[in-house]
Amino acid sequence: MWQAGPVQAAQAEVLVRFSHVVAQDTPKGQMASRFKKLVEQRSGGRIRVEVYPDSQLYGDDDEMEALQLGAVEMLAPSLSKFGTVGVSEFEVFDLPFLFHDLEQVRCVTRGPIGRQLLQRLLRQQMVGLGFLDNGFKQMSAGKPIQNVQDFKGLRIRIQASRVLTAQMRSLGAHPVVLPFDETQRALATGVVDGAENPLSNFLTQGLASVQRSVTLTSHGYLGYAVVSNPRFWASLDETDRGILTSALNDALEEGNRLSAQMNQQALATLRESSGVRVHALSSAQRDAMRRAVQPVYDSFQRRVGANLLSQVQRDCL
Ligand code: LMR
């Protein structure tokens, strides 16, 4: 029986440029590499995927525009960043202390609410293809952040999200929006004092060398939506669209399996490192933070409407 071999593999007919902002050794980086491998295998090399990690090609500031203009074919921005291009519904994922665990998040992303959210992206010139977890964010700074008072006056780097801005203000901190790839330098030079990250991002961005303290607040979720350019997606024939879709679904499944593991591994590494101290929260400290961020819910409901939040609360929490 004839099989696709290396000669055919040389003749790429379709090119997918997949740009992202994190290191390869993160849930998103691993998912993108897996996607590349599966697509190239399943198409016998007819479809080539070039992955550009670490903001090499585009960073937070310009990647969405690059996708809309067709300069890249695929991205996986964090859900927080879709608010900046007019899809404020995605800010629901930023609400502090909304989700207790990944199962609750997955109930949203894998069910009817997730499908509606992906559909919603079409109005902003993006085809929404699926969701990927990173995990829960932990606070870092030069000191432990266990009480609401510990936030007072700190300048904290956040992603561009109105919910995250409101979250930091309600805790008494000054939110500073910075692209991901500028965070390490901003912390090193004292432009900001702290940050909120899943530990896999904290570790792979070298933040352990510039922050002495990590507090396990798990106060918010960080995940991604994989998106493509609609003109590119429509230009594919059914076979190629099928290959990309099935490869992505398999890569997302693997990425979602890896995400909790990679954050656990990062925690173990940090606990062993001499430069960073890891602190926990008592349930009273967590409750006090949860109470302090309540105003964020009111402003989100006013802006986005109460329906989406009640649907999430009713069906998944
Ligand atoms: C951030 O900017 O902190 C994250 O969105 C980076 C990422 O893509 O995980």
From TrEMBL:
Family to which this protein belongs: Belongs to the bacterial solute-binding protein 7 family.
UniProt keyword Transport present: yes
Stored InterPro entries: DctP_fam, TRAP_DctP, TRAP_DctP_sf
Lineage: Bacteria, Pseudomonadati, Pseudomonadota, Betaproteobacteria, Burkholderiales
Tree of life domain: Bacteria
A Pfam family reported for this protein in Swiss-Prot or TrEMBL: DctP
Alphabetic keyword roster: Signal, Transport
Protein name according to UniProt: DctP family TRAP transporter solute-binding subunit
UniProt keyword ATP-binding, yes or no: no
Membrane spanning residue stretches: none
Gene3D superfamilies: Bacterial extracellular solute-binding protein, family 7 (3.40.190.170)
